[in-house]
Amino acid sequence: MLEEPNYLLEIPRLRVQNANAISSPLTWGFPAMTAFVGLMHTLERKLADRDVAILFDSVGVICHRHEPQISTATFPRTFRLTRNPIFQSKRDVQSNRPAAIVEEGRTHLEITLVFSVRGDACQSPENEQVTRQIEELVHTLRIAGGTVQPTRNPRRRITRIIPVTEDAEARPKEYRKLLRQWLPGFALVARDDLLQSHWKMLREKNGDSTLLDAWLDLSRLNMECHLEESAGTGKEPTVHWEPRRPAGWLVPIPVGYGALGPLHDPGTVAAARDAETPFRFVESLYSIGQWIGPHRLTSPKQLLWYPESDPDNGRYRLRNDYEPNVYA
């Protein structure tokens, strides 16, 4: 479990264009949290190359605007696609036929990134120079495959390192003030507990229900048929269709990867991206997430995600310590 952070790094109101909207083979919409954890590791490595003593432990995302690039004229929705370049190969040029479209999902975002950080740079009186370097560095990187755009808001807060008070009595008031600064927006938190409880409920009705059934049942809008008897009138019962879905803005999300086979020695797998790191074939792991207003949280810790690896069991996933029973 993640410890209460001593320092938070806030990068507010980033505008990201054409981020990857296909988060896994089964889900689409907001980018996967693994993309933001990857950004966290990239930031840490690039700052180390600049001799900046700062370490990153976890990352949280508050989404202020989400604009998927889809066509709304038809149903089901389709992505707006481009064909670049027109001719992809010599065969296409000779046949004078345009290259096939490779489907990719894109979305425009406005997000605030929150990192739990530590290190000498957090306590340095010159940490404004550090935050300036981080701000400049983020604008040169890709976020979930998207390009960071210059800000259009002259009143946008600058990147800052926020020390967290050690006074347990003062923390709740400080947290409330901090969390409300990230409104309007929604933070993504994990609801593994809800997935397990829903699976238990389905098994009480049908003992053959699987965890996949519970995941699908929580991911969709279910319509239930209700019959309303007409007492004493002799008429046929009236049929009503009503939606059934648990309370809250629930979404299916990928949370990491599970191994499909053993680790292979570096350089033994053809076309691997890195010839110096052991290679493993994996598939996506899924769970349920919930979008929740930051003001409903009691601590920034509840919106932070951190990696948890278990190579012996072939599990590489992300964790989030959100507790639904903390707030009313």
From TrEMBL:
Q: Which Pfam families match?
A: Cas_Csy2
What InterPro entries would the database entry show? CRISPR-assoc_prot_Csy2 (IPR013398)
Source organism superkingdom = Bacteria
The protein here is known as CRISPR-associated protein Csy2
Organism listed in the record: Thioalkalivibrio paradoxus ARh 1
